[in-house]
UniProtKB/TrEMBL annotation:
<dbReference type="Pfam" id="PF04930">
    <property type="entry name" value="FUN14"/>
</dbReference>
<keyword id="KW-0812">Transmembrane</keyword>
<protein>
    <submittedName>
        <fullName>FUN14 domain-containing protein 1</fullName>
    </submittedName>
</protein>
<comment type="similarity">
    <text>Belongs to the FUN14 family.</text>
</comment>
<dbReference type="InterPro" id="IPR007014">
    <property type="entry name" value="FUN14"/>
</dbReference>
<keyword id="KW-0496">Mitochondrion</keyword>
<dbReference type="GO" id="GO:0000422">
    <property type="term" value="P:autophagy of mitochondrion"/>
</dbReference>
<keyword id="KW-1133">Transmembrane helix</keyword>
<dbReference type="GO" id="GO:0005741">
    <property type="term" value="C:mitochondrial outer membrane"/>
</dbReference>
<keyword id="KW-0072">Autophagy</keyword>
<keyword id="KW-0472">Membrane</keyword>
<keyword id="KW-1000">Mitochondrion outer membrane</keyword>
């Protein structure tokens, strides 16, 4: 019976919902309330809902990204052709001066993080902690949507 090569090994089935109720580490890691969605639907339903919405968002993000990249690249190509043909003359010294001025402004503003951004990040983190299963399904679906 203690033979490690035995084919008749017995495995214990672990019910994750009961385990999470009995062990309070979940509350310590993800907060006292693990979310309203977690209490209403099963884990499989949450992952499916997150995955489907993530896939849709990823697919739309991919299509819009391709369109935007094509538009910017095409516009840049047309400007280069116009510049090479002599239709457009670029004052590179003025461009460099304006870019340096914009860099200085950005550095000044970047050091002062807006409180709205910090509040938004805290709210997003809190939402993800409360809805960890749906969020993980969303991330996986988003990457699948980007790949398709």
């Amino acid at each position: 019976m203690d033979d490690p090569e035995s084919e008749d090994e017995v495995y214990e089935v672990v019910d994750l919902t009961e385990y999470a109720r009995r062990h309070q580490w979940w509350s310590r890691v993800f907060g006292s309330n693990s979310g309203p969605i977690a209490e209403k639907y099963s884990v499989a339903t949450q992952i499916m809902m997150g995955g489907v919405t993530g896939w849709c968002a990823g697919y739309v993000f991919q299509r819009v990204g391709k369109l935007a990249a094509t538009a910017v690249g095409g516009g840049f190509l047309l400007l280069q052709i116009a510049n090479h043909s002599g239709y457009v003359q670029v004052d590179w010294k003025k461009v460099e001066k304006d870019v340096n001025k914009a860099k200085k402004r950005l550095k000044k503003k970047a050091n002062k993080a807006a409180p709205e951004i910090n509040t938004f990040i805290e709210e997003a983190t809190d939402f993800i902690k409360r809805n960890i299963v749906v969020s993980s399904g969303f991330v996986g679906g988003f990457f699948l949507g980007l790949a398709s």
